[in-house]
Amino acid sequence: MTVKWGIIGCGGVAEHKGGPALYKAEDSELVAVMRRDQQLAAEFAERHGAQRHYSTVEQILADDQVNAVYVATPPHVHAEQTIAAAQAGKHVLCEKPMAMSVAECRDMIAACEGNGVQLMIAYYRRFWPVAQKMKQLIADGAVGEPTMARAHCTSLWHPPTDGSVPWRIRPEIAGGGFLWDIGAHRLDLLLQMMGDVESAAALVDAIHFDIEVDDSSSLVMQFASGAQGVGMFYWTVGANVDELEVAGPGGRLIATNVDTGDITLTQGGKAEQFHLPWPNPTHLLLVEHYVQCLISGEPNALPGEEGMKTTAIIEAAGQSAKTGSFVALDTLG
User: Fold this and answer.
1) Could you list the residue range(s) of the whole structural domain that residue 7 is in?
2) What does the pLDDT look like over 296-309, one tens digit per residue?
3) Sign of torsion, CA 18 196 115 27?
4) What are phi and psi of 283, to 5 degrees?
């Protein structure tokens, strides 16, 4: 069996990350693409070797050769397009964040289950060697029973000089700002390392830029294990930081740069370092995993239920910022 893909949404993430992975993975072929601008869709198809191009979702979902779709559109249409794809009998790989709310996530999961198709959410960093190594070291007891975890990510956002408003800072399209766009990936890694989050409290605000979405978010989380977690995500810092830390009585494990794959394990004053670069393209290992799951019929490692957990943390953070109190994730949706 070969998984024959259609792409819904041919923007930057499909161009450089998810799209190339669809035809570089074994037993995987890109056959059709869709973008509202027909000319841009045709140019994308030519660059990436797709046989056909369309300008509507309905057209690509009617393509009988396509048996799986990659939803690479902005978050506000993820639920609608995933549900439509499921109803058309297509398996779905959906970009992150999964949806605009936990309620939408539940609708997506129900549609895929009801139509007998698999849903996977594209938190691709889970499959990177750096994340796999950290998970292995934690499971092997490198830090003992983890008591704390931290994700810390900063950069400086640069507003467009032409006065335009990019979709990533339009709440009705993106859901939110840096927390939704970049923080979501790091929250998913915390879930991978630590397990489920039970409750969260947060400050989520725009404190530097005059925008309608967050440029600064500070989260405190209670994991089901009893461990505590912190998430710090800021678009307001003129220096890039990308750290992921898990620690316990046995030591401290930190990815000093998640994207370059640099890890330091400190135990008893002795430090051991690892360098585990990312794959190229970034989504390759995720797509390879999903393709083999579709061929074998085995469940994938990031189904809708798992992807929804990050959306729940973000939704709880937003509620907490308004109420000033912890929000239990099981009260959402």
Assistant:
1) 3-125+283-301
2) 999 999 999 999 99
3) positive
4) -90, 0
